[in-house]
Amino acid sequence: HPGNIMIDTEGRLVLVDFGCVLEIPAEVKRAYIALVMAITSRNRQGIASSLKAAGFSADDDDALVRLAELFLEAFEEDLTNIDPAEQIRAATALAGEAGNIRVPRSFVLFGRIFALTGGVLMHHQPDVDLKTLLASTLARALRNQVG
After folding, report:
1. Mean pLDDT, to the nearest integer, of 84-111?
2. In which band, very low, low, confident or very high, does the pLDDT at 53 lie, cut at 50, 70 and 90?
3. What pLDDT is stored for residue 141 in this prediction?
4. What mean pLDDT comes out for the span 46-71?
5. Average pLDDT over residues 11-29
C-alpha cells in the first residue's frame, strides 16, 4: 500500500506497516538469485528451472519455459518502461493456455513489493540506474549465500 511508504524530510525511506510478512527459506532465496542470474544471462531453460525451484508448477512443463519468455520480454527494455498491467495480462493468458500455472506465495509477495517500489520510483523519479542497483544487490546476495 503506497500509504505505508514515505520519504522523510531528510530523504530517507520510511516503512510504516509490516503487516504482510513471509519468511523465505534459504533454498527458495537461492532459487530467486538463480532466477535473476538466468534472466540477466537470457537463459530460458535456466529461468524455467529457477521458477520450478522457487515453487512454480504447471500441468504442462513447457508452460514454465513460456513463462520464462515473458520474463525475458519484460527485461528487454529499460526497466522503467515495463508495463506491469501488460505483463500481468500476458502471464494470466499464458496460465490459462498452459494448464494451470501455480505461483508460490513468495512470488506474489515479491510482486507486491516490486509494484509498490516501482510506483514510488515512478512518482519520485530518482536518478537511479536500476540495472546497476539490481546487479550490486544480486552480487551482495550471492556473497551472503556463499559466505
Report:
1. 74
2. very high
3. 74
4. 84
5. 80
Cα–Cα distance between 64 and 90 in angstroms, integer? 13
DSSP states of the chain? -GGGEEE-TTS-EEE----S--PPPHHHHHHHHHHHHHHHTT-HHHHHHHHHHHT-B-SSTHHHHHHHHHHHHHTTS-GGG--HHHHHHHHHHHHHHHT--B--HHHHHHHHHHHHHHHHHHHH-----HHHHHHHHHHHHHHHHH-
Return the number of other C-beta atoms located less than 10 Å from residue 87's C-beta: 15
Q: Count Cβ neighbours within 10 Å for each residue of 97-130 and write b for 16 or more, e otherwise.
A: ebeebebbebbeeeeeeeeeeeebeeeeeeeeee
Nearest to 87 by CA among 98, 104, 74: 74
Pairing of strands 5-7, 13-15: antiparallel
pTM for this prediction: 0.67
Q: How far is CA 109 from CA 3, 10, 23, 60, 116, in A?
A: 17, 29, 11, 24, 11
Mean pLDDT for the chain overall: 76
